[in-house]
Amino acid sequence: MKKIILAIDGMTCSACSNGLEKYLNKQNGIVNCSVNLVMANATIEYDEKILDIEKIEEFIKQAGFKSLGEFKEIKLDEKSKKEKVKLIIFSILAVILMYISMGHMVNLPTLEIINPHTNGINYAISLLILTIAFMAYGFDILKNGYKNLIHRVPNMDTLVGIGVISSFLYSLYSLYMILNGVHSYTMNLYFESAAFVIYFVKLGRYIDRISKDKTKEAISKLVKITPDKAVVKIDGIEKQVTLDEINKGDIVISRPGEKIAVDGQIILGRAHLDESFITGESKPVLKEVSSKVIAGSMNYDGYLEYRAEKIGKESTISEIVKLVIEASNTKAPIAKIADKVSGYFVPAVILIAIVTFFIYLIIGQSFSVALSTFVTILVVACPCSLGLATPLAIVISEGLCASNGILVKKSEILENARKVNTVVFDKTGTLTYGKLKIAEVLNYSDIDYNGLLQLVGSVESKSTHPIGKAFMDYLEKNKLPILEIDEFENIVGLGIIGKIKNENIIVGNSKILKKYEIDNPYIQEEKKLAEDGNSIVYVVKQNKIIALIGVNDIVRDNAKTVIDNLNKNRIETIMLTGDNEKTADKIAKEIGITKVISNVLPSEKTNMIKKLKEQNKFVMMCGDGINDSPALASSDIGVSVNSGTDIAMDSSDVILTKNDLSSIINLINISKRTIKNIKQNLFWAFFYNCLMIPIAIGILKPIGISINPMIASIAMVFSSITVILNALRLKKQ
């Protein structure tokens, strides 16, 4: 099986996307197809033994649409400027048309040469000429409507096309009668109705296109983060190339003020990089030899040479864009409701319009009144707003999640996250940082806190032990320089020794004290630190203990706040860890988790998730390691922190790129707001049609309420604008 995302041209409403989706899913060789109206693409899973891309594109053409090839990147509509100019020109023509056709009705000054009462032929011909211009403007609508009708997937264009052509043909008949001297037909012209319907449909689509572009901006900005060109070093010679010319293994150069071109590993140099667009970390990060770099990072202050590792579609940025696009192409269950309704809605409206037309004739109404009602029903019922209700809100929310460091792989997660009532956390690397940090310092000297840790960090800078990394991280974070070390010695299993300003400094565990016969009056303090799960570091200066330091894998800064927030929202929190009971209980107590399941193997983690689901709990699992992968896959929603392993991220439904647990709260809140917004959109879309179709039929004519095709087209635009504005509210909350 293969999967491909194709860009589709010609879709204008949910009936289009729904009809194309149904048509493709019926074809032999296509396993599954999902069509996205807002992103204008189709995700197709197919059997490559039966089909190829050319055959699939032929199916799309048969359905009345056009494939623009593989969907490689998010493009904002390049036609907007031309469409804007056309819209301005036809807005002016619309005013002229309205003046000619209706000016005499409101006693405006009328040119005698086109006065309908005295020069009916000139009046009719002027309307015909202007209407032909509008029909040329809306030829794409008429063409698509015809194609979709022929392929039995009628859509909004079909409704508009039938209405416009019906009005135009009847008006041509009226013009023929006028030319033959029957001047009463001057009042039976509907040229302006056909023209105004096209104009307002075009206006609505222009507004719709702008709103769709806005929903794509956050994603498209990611694509533009990487530079267009880079400098590579080949046989010692520097050469400027485009990104497409960089190959894996190439040595790429980055100078201060330049962006990293591709993902890679530093082989020479040292610099601070801004990676905030990925990690959310506002402070520049120090990168040295062996450090990984991410495409799009800004180099602030150093010369770097790095080896290209991930290029093109493999880069971090491309992966993020791909995930967001694929997520927007999956359909939330609530979206399928609108799709199903749209599939039946258009044929039903056509049937209602035809039945109403004949009823009007049967009860003695004139042909012109019956035709006007027929056209009005078709136009007012166009399901634009219904088609936008769900996909627009979903895409906006996808962008909102991405900008908040939450990568959602499937749009159904946006619907389901609000249902979460149980969140299960792994401990190491999820609730904690997963690396040793300085947890507690007992200072028995007159050296200040920073001075003491600078002393220890300088000695540890010569060591490769993981504990030494905790002190080095502290020096880096606080911008403390490393002091000069003399006579350094590493005593395996015990600690390290060095001289700073001719003073002996010993850093190590209690065993090193025995080796050098140093008196230890702090045994009780050591015991207490050890009980708290710390690794113990003694600091000795000139054979006297000056400090006792506890190093531990400490909890994330906001872990307690996140747990408190979840508990307040009546969401159960559980710690599920392979660590020992004592350590797990200590961390759980510190952050407010009351239920702890410890000493579990990876397979047991999966079983625990399944047991929770059997208790009718909707479970979100948050983890980071290989051992979490089965549990992440088994949960209703699997969440992986970005610092986790590749397999954990592959198994998850959501990736937290900022490594910030508060993103879980944001995801749940965005989910609640998204579904609320979609329900509001669907309500207004259905309410609008339920209200306007009866009015269009003429049920309220006895009390003086009626509409014509022009008013119907204005109402149709208004309904779409209402849904668009409501969906855009998601960005501001």
Question: What is the radius of gyration computed over CA atoms, rounded to a whole number of angstroms?
Answer: 34 Å
Q: How many domains make up the coordinates?
A: 5
Q: Shape, please?
A: elongated
Query: Structural class, judged by helices and strands?
Result: alpha+beta
Strand portion: 15-25%
- Enumerate the strands of the largest sheet in spatial order, edge to edge or round the barrel: 14-26-25-24-15-22-23
What about the largest sheet? 7 strands, mixed
User: How much helicity do the residues have?
Assistant: 40-55%
End-to-end CA span: 41 Å
Low-confidence segments, ≥5 residues, pLDDT <50?
Answer: none
Number of strands: 26
The average pLDDT value, as a whole number, equals 81
Output the number of helix runs: 25
